[in-house]
């Protein structure tokens, strides 16, 4: 194990009907609240109404920012910042999935930053103060509801980048699995791929003596692999929605990196490049790239892929080389994602090799890409080539 | 899953040399600090010196309370409360194991309570304010370093009772596995039994759809079962100390009850009665009682014991009844604890049946004993009888 700090100030209210806790979290009456959401789905499924009822009960003065994009854009962040300053917002409430939450994290810290918020995303500046915010989760996927990470897209520059800050933890998050009942099949699948990818990124570390946390990661993966097909056959089942929702939050709240080097994250870097250029769903991009990254890396050192194959996919290791075991595990992962309906090649989105050079550059937004294996522009291109068809 | 709240405000600094973080936690210079510890072991092993160096570096004004008992007593809590009031203590620092930390939790809340602190332990009063405190852990066992639970003994009344409060979380805890290198064999074993018992108590719940958390619990048990024999053969091994230390903290920091009914805890209630009368080590009492509680319960409903037997002890279930599988698992647990040198019968402590009636009454300090199976005075006595030899 490496030395580490474990802390997470977010309070999670999990379960059906937990929206009522919003009153307690709002505290005394009269707060000026900015309500942030995406498209109209929360109006169709009743979540908007439930939130508004709680806010009205506390006589909160509510302002709204809607239309946050699936890959939330700097321009939208700036709109939110303007409202916060203009209306002296005291609490921001994100009602939605990871995109809305990521956007709110940026608004929250940006409201107190005088310069261009992109400075913070690009680590030219560090936030020193933030408006408190909470979340009402409506999509199980990114884990943003219990971490301090936010990914923002600068659409004009085709750049999609993550930033983080100790100020970017939600004060509270309300996780009601029934709020995800109406999430359509494809979004549900992308969410499942996304949370599994978060675990996999962390699983591919090189720290020794991490058996408990390794088992925790395998536990999250096994639980999702078990629940996902049942959920897709019965999208309104609260038990399956709950299992997947809690797995998604746990997948990326810091716990699973305790004592490790933090894992690899090259696949995420490459995917950020991909969805910055093509605006495809993050989970779709990951489903295509991750198995190819694994196969690429297993050719050098299959150790962790072998462990995953045996412990998570139940691959029988008798009489096989490590590489063979690893390859069977990678195939099992791809087959599992395919069985859910996730894409498996760039061609599924009509993407060809024509912008690969640009895409490689977009993947190198950070100086270092990858940790399990340090990527070069050549190795990223190799992974993209493997992903074509 | 049941509805639940997940929050834990304690900051954990884990790893060799993390004592240096004490400076950051102390903040600006000049704090009035009460240093609380048990016997002289922290002076012999260098931990006392390391802590004092950090405190001196910040020009803290340090007062001391030493001699906290293995089952910390109300009289000692009262001594600490008096010092806090007398010296206007601003931060309390527990340096030791669960007993010292539990004592500090009581001092911290008791300093602001005008009445007898036993009122709080017996839930006649609720703490409303507490002096902030941190811990430097020197024994992996109770998990008190990351939870809000404290167990105090009223020695004159032979009563040992737990209390908890949202104010009783440590602000920070420093977990340096090398600080546990000098813990002797028997204390190390009791700690291992204690942390495993915490997981087992939580494992014996009756909530459905808890697969991820069930797997987490199995992961903690598997990790301890794997590490313990290696650690006992090599007490100064930092990797094994680290694995056991982190498992002990995770075993009882709230996470493993997320979404469940909280588990059973009858064995703990009975053990509190036992060690209130006989002052035996908590881990020793649990090693004797827990398998007998399991066997007693398995006779009615072996379901969870069967799951444990298969998933943790690798019992082959082919051709066996659930009760047979459960019984083999219980025997495997007892054999494992025996192999570490833990006691297996009350006779090992020279305890006979002469005070069983009194002991049964002590177990009923709370109205309800047990949850997986609600205990009566008769069933508690049955477990004690099974534990005699």
TrEMBL record, chains A, B:
<feature type="domain" description="Fe-containing alcohol dehydrogenase-like C-terminal">
    <location>
        <begin position="188"/>
        <end position="387"/>
    </location>
</feature>
<dbReference type="Pfam" id="PF00465">
    <property type="entry name" value="Fe-ADH"/>
</dbReference>
<dbReference type="InterPro" id="IPR001670">
    <property type="entry name" value="ADH_Fe/GldA"/>
</dbReference>
<protein>
    <submittedName>
        <fullName>NADH-dependent alcohol dehydrogenase</fullName>
    </submittedName>
</protein>
<dbReference type="InterPro" id="IPR018211">
    <property type="entry name" value="ADH_Fe_CS"/>
</dbReference>
<dbReference type="InterPro" id="IPR044731">
    <property type="entry name" value="BDH-like"/>
</dbReference>
<dbReference type="Pfam" id="PF25137">
    <property type="entry name" value="ADH_Fe_C"/>
</dbReference>
<feature type="domain" description="Alcohol dehydrogenase iron-type/glycerol dehydrogenase GldA">
    <location>
        <begin position="9"/>
        <end position="177"/>
    </location>
</feature>
<dbReference type="InterPro" id="IPR056798">
    <property type="entry name" value="ADH_Fe_C"/>
</dbReference>
<keyword id="KW-0560">Oxidoreductase</keyword>
């Amino acid at each position: 194990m490496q030395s580490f700090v474990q802390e997470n100030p977010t309070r999670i209210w999990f379960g059906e009907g937990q929206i009522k806790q919003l009153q307690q979290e709002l505290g005394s009456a009269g707060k000026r609240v900015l309500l942030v959401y995406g498209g109209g789905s929360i109006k169709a499924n009743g979540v908007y109404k439930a939130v508004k009822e709680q806010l009205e009960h506390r006589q909160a003065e509510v302002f709204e920012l809607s239309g946050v994009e699936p890959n939330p854009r700097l321009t939208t962040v700036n709109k939110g910042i303007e409202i916060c300053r203009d209306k002296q917002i005291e609490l921001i409430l994100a009602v939605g999935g990871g995109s809305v939450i990521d956007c709110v994290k940026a608004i929250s810290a940006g409201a107190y930053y005088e310069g261009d918020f992109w400075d913070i995303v690009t680590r030219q500046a560090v936030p020193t103060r933030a408006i408190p915010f909470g979340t009402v989760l409506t999509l199980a996927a990114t884990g943003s509801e219990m971490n301090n990470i936010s990914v923002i897209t600068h659409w004009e520059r085709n750049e999609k980048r993550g930033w983080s800050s100790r100020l970017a933890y939600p004060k509270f998050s309300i996780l009601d699995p029934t709020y995800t009942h109406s999430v359509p099949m494809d979004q549900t699948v992308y969410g499942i791929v996304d949370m599994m990818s978060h675990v996999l990124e962390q699983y591919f570390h090189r720290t020794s003596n991490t058996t408990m946390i390794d088992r925790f990661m395998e536990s999250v993966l096994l639980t999702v692999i078990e629940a996902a097909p049942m959920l897709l056959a019965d999208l309104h089942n609260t038990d399956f929605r709950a299992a997947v929702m809690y797995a998604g939050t746990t997948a990326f709240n810091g716990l699973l990196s305790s004592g490790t080097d933090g894992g690899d994250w090259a696949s995420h870097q490459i995917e950020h490049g991909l969805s910055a250029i093509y605006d495809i769903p993050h989970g779709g991009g990951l489903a295509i790239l991750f198995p190819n990254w694994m196969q690429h890396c297993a050719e050098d050192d299959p150790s962790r892929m072998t462990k995953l194959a045996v412990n998570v996919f139940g691959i029988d290791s008798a009489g096989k080389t490590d590489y063979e075991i690893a390859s069977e595990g990678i195939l099992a992962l791809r087959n599992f994602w395919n069985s859910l309906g996730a894409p498996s090649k760039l061609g599924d989105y009509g993407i060809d090799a024509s912008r690969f050079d640009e895409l490689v550059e977009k993947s190198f937004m950070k100086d270092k890409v990858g940790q399990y294996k340090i990527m070069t522009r050549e190795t990223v291109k190799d992974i993209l080539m493997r992903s074509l068809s």
